[in-house]
Amino acid sequence: MNAQARDRLVAVARDLLAHAREQTTPLASGVMELDASVYTDKDRFERERTLIFRRLPLMLAASCELRAPGDYKAMDVAGVPVLLVRGRDGVARAFLNICTHRGSIVADGCGNASRFMCPYHGWTFDAEGALVGIAGRADFGDVDMAAKGLRPFPVLEKAGLIWAILDPASTLDIGTFLSGYDAMLEGFGLSTWRVLESRTLKGANWKLAFDAHLDFYHLPVLHRNTFGPRISPKAFYYHWGPHQRLTRPERPENRVIPDHANLFGMADAAESDWPAEALMLGEWILFPHVSINSFYDGGRGILISQIFPGDTVDESWTVQTYLMQDEPDEAQRAAALRQAAFLAHVVADEDLPMSIRQQRALESGLLPAVCFGRNEGGGQQFHRWIERIMETDDAGLDILFRDGLNE
Ligand code: FES
Ligand SMILES: [Fe+2]
Question: What atom of ligand 1 comes closest to residue 104's alpha carbon?
Fold first, then answer.
């Protein structure tokens, strides 16, 4: 983590400790109304899939999911087949996972491979996306093989995470979009972590599913049987461009957090001694569709939640990937797996069913607007940025993110 990123994190921690001491909570300036049709309108949904999910950098995988050369992961992202592969040169790349012959999906699932053979007629691509073999080459006729490789997407691998823009022609600078947020995420040191497990959960409209990651207001109510009715509903929101961090004004009572990671135990220590680990707690919101949370059962871990729009306005997929900092022993692994299963239960049996009921209710069309309170600044910020981006043409995106950083 560079000095500037650490300074930013220390400033957040200082602010948080001051508010905890004075028992104050900053709030958004007002209540925000949001047209309920943003969750139900089919045309709008198609525009979001294009203007958000095909124009913005998306955090598609942790680097440790593609640790070794040849490691790959195929995924469907808002209707775009994507193949992530780490090449023999160690570089992570993202390709359109569509065969340049006649459009078959080339690779499925995840694994390790030096070559990808299309299952239709057997064209073969290497781990850097080049077309290296055409079945029955002599009879096929003239093809410029160099021009028929898999179509690459712009990629940036930083902070142990991999972002891609699902538009081969995009000129948007991913670093500008990240607004220095990636430098703060370096504080996790994720490039050396490992995957514990991953699962996919179905929900309603992707923004309804993501809204539940943007506030703590609902925790003691919707999650009274899991997190408990006494968990604090207060969240502090900090933002950098469209990205955010939610954190709490006090130590969460129901979490295992070791002393060295507990910010509230070190208020008397010099700021220069605050360990990076304590500065990383809370929830990291990687706009437009990812959240990262820290947990300590069985050793230091994070849960990455990626929310992807489904095929229709009323469908989304939440991919939960649990990473651990260190290789766990058997007992630690069991504890971490219990934590991951608990978090899956909370989301699959409480948050996502709520989103499905909201969806059905809003589709009646009879509630014109929903609202976000002054204590729900995270949702306000998220929806304002979605609107802003939908209204901005391709040429204006770079400027939007440059300026957005300074607001
Ligand atoms: S579609 Fe891939 S080889 Fe024909
Ligand atoms: Fe929740």
Answer: 1
> What digits encode the pLDDT tens for the residues 261-284?
888 777 788 999 888 898 998 999
* Nearest ligand, CA 116: 1
Looking at 153, 171, 189, which one is the last position of a domain?
171
Cβ count near 177 (within 10 Å) = 25
Q: Which of 6, 82, 51 is nearest to 306 (CA)?
A: 82
C-alpha pair distances (Å), 271 with each of 8, 12, 278, 346, 377: 12, 12, 11, 35, 27
User: What percent of the chain is predicted at pLDDT more than 70?
Assistant: 97
Q: Of the residues 171, 205, 229, which one is the last residue of a structural domain?
A: 171
Any atom of ligand 1 within 6 Å of the Cβ of 45: no
Q: Is the full-model pTM beyond 0.90?
A: yes
Shared domain check, 268 and 306? yes
For ligand 2, an ion, list residues with CB under 5 A.
212, 351
Q: Is the distance from the beta carbon of residue 338 to the nearest atom of ligand 1 less than 6 Å?
A: no
